[in-house]
Specification:
This protein is α+β, with helices and mostly antiparallel strands and about 190 residues long. It contains 4 helices and 10 strands; from the N terminus they run βαββββββαβββαα. The strands form 2 sheets. It has an 8-stranded mixed sheet.
Length: about 190
Amino acid sequence: MTGAFVAGAVCALSPSTAAAQVPPYVNGRIELSGPNPRGASVPLRSFVAEVEADDAGGECISSSPFGPTSMLIVATFPSRSAAVMNAVLTFDATGALIHYNETRGFTGARGVSPRATAAERDSARVAQSAAMRSTAISLDYTSGVASLRNFGGGKPSVVATAAVAVVEAMPQFGPINERVARVRKLCGV
């Protein structure tokens, strides 16, 4: 995919601090050539998370699906059986956080029989996801790129892309650093 940089990210950091901490190629909206299947791209300053964060309570699951080189933890809020938000953190072999993903709203298909086929489970997931408005925030610490998306609920998807440091500094999206710390404590990481 080719992309063109469009300036315009709003940042809580001072311009000199932001310039020092944020690579210029991710300091704003990225417009993809051709249609974007993930949704309409908007500048970060225009993006509004349509689903509020709800991190009350919480349950945690951890695993090492890629062997001893990484660890994955999933925190669901308020509980796994009644989840309205989840946060997924991926750590490398040194324990460094390399990816954070938060989904508010649709967190997985509900009411599907344990005997359902894979196709039935997938159909239920697609139908339920399309029916409920959700917000997803993804921070890739390896590349330094953050992606924010509102989707489902019968409305068009809306996407904003910016530098991780810019998104972390914006209180309307978290505060994400506090949520990461809370999930780490909840999960004992």
